[in-house]
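Researcher: I'd like a structural prediction for the single chain below. Treat it as a standalone chain; there are no partners to consider.
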Amino acid sequence: MVAFERRAIEPFRNRLEGRRAELLKEIQDVSGRDGAEPFRRLAGEVADPGDESVAATLIDTNHAAVGRDLGEIRAIDRALQRIADGTYGFCSECGVEIPNARLEANPTAERCFPCQDHFEKTHSHENWPLH
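Model: Treating it as a single chain, here is the predicted structure.
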């Protein structure tokens, strides 16, 4: 396995590091807010069950967004580790070189198309329908 040339990998590293910084800022922005603030702003002095429901939905949405962002940060960290190890750009399953177009579209890609397709089919949640 021959690693990418150092200069060819730098744009990927820069893109991954930039996206990681964006995600950390988003998480900081969301977590820096007072969780009760949406409720107070929406409900005002007299709360009713509808207002409470809307506020709870906003809070749940923020938590879901943070969870999604943390998942992406973990994928970025794994990609940055592969860059450091010299394995970035090669499929973690079969070892073939991942096409550059795939890395451009998804710089955190760990697998080539066939291996990713197989992974998704064999690791899908049992309650998810496969169509």
